[in-house]
Amino acid sequence: MRGEVGAVGETLTEIRRLLHRHPELSHEEVKTAELAAERSAAAGFSVRTGLGGHGVIADLESGRSGPTLMLRADMDALPVDERDDGRPVRSEVPGVMHACGHDGHVAMTVGAAAVLAALRDAWSGRLRLCFQPAEERAEGAVPMIEAGADEGVDRVLGIHLWSGLQVGRVAVTPGVLFGSADSFRITVRGRGGHGGMPHAAVDPILAAAHVVTALQEIVSRETSPFAPAVVTIGRISGGTTFNVIADTVEIEGTVRALDQQERERLLRRVGEVARDVASAFRADGVFIRESGCPPVISDPEVADVVRRAAIASVGAEHVDVAHPITVGDDIACFLDRHPGCYFLVGAGHPERGEVAPHHSAGFEIDEAALPVGVETLARAALEILR
């Protein structure tokens, strides 16, 4: 196994750097999908493109009966302008960056596919690659499922590079790893008027300000401290100039929770608070639930397979159990339908204090993480498909 992984080492770096220089936003992953399809076909996989947008599915048959294992990789980048600090590889697309490691996810999945293709005589069943668009908007998995991407799948594996975990370490968590992730929009509707005569208008900016403040009390006063939850407002927009009271204000935010019941409660309360608080200021608060996905939950048995694979790859002393994190990932939609495991591969240097958060302009991965991910993924796949 180590020899096969070593043989794809340069390819891993080449793919990751190519994608990092040319990132594509959600629903725009044209060239990334083309690369994934071409590399999969070159390894002997039969390829289907255009599933649920720019999604790619690639299958390799062993010629022997057995389960179908799907390896899923997300492809999209983020609307972030990468920091220009002399780093050796930097995005060449202004305002767009791979700030969450998806360039590495594609590279590792292609690399694991090449390793497993070379070891085709050692496994049975079918290996499926799923290159998914639009993860960052939680809008990619469901359209691929609707297009049949996971038909016949028995198990699912996915990998996430993590800057907060030391390179050379792997974290495998049975149960909840990531929280649910839902976006919402609130429109606060008032009645416009003259800034000098607020009594003759209904001020949606004032109402929206109280809505934003009240939403934080859902977590601080209604949620148990033993049930992690997040309500964050990421955008608020309204008004045109200093002396005009606007007609409407738009609020956009996200809700995160670690179980489905809490997820639904939080979303219900966001809608109720928006409506009732706006009403107290004579405005209307209209809540719209937009895209979202459930918590990322790894099957304990599959997680145990991945844990053993990680131990074989990096040694037991370098394998951790990660605490649940209130970020989200719509691989959850696949894991909701099939037993599987999503695991973390260390890609940073927290011991040096070099941890730029995911989704930030300074985010960077250590490429030494790539072969670690490939070997762990390939070893786990071999055990599942034995």
Quick structural overview:
The protein has helices at residues 2-7, 9-21, 30-42, 102-118, 141-146, 204-222, 260-280, 300-314, 332-335, 369-384, and strands at 46-51, 55-61, 68-74, 126-132, 155-166, 170-171, 175-178, 181-189, 193-194, 229-238, 244-245, 248-257, 284-293, 296-298, 319-320, 340-348. The protein is an alpha/beta fold and 386 residues long. The longest helix has 21 residues, at 260-280.
What would you note in describing this structure?
The chain has 386 residues and is α/β, with parallel strands linked by helices. The protein has two domains: 2-178 and 296-384, Zn peptidases (Aminopeptidase, 3-Layer(aba) Sandwich); 181-292, Alpha-Beta Plaits (2-Layer Sandwich). The chain has helices at residues 2-7, 9-21, 30-42, 102-118, 141-146, 204-222, 260-280, 300-314, 332-335, 369-384; strands at residues 46-51, 55-61, 68-74, 126-132, 155-166, 170-171, 175-178, 181-189, 193-194, 229-238, 244-245, 248-257, 284-293, 296-298, 319-320, 340-348. The strands form four sheets. It has an eight-stranded mixed β-sheet with strand order 1-2-4-3-5-16-6-15. α4 (102-118) packs across α10 and α8 crosses α10. The longest helix is centred in the last third of the chain and has 21 residues, at 260-280.
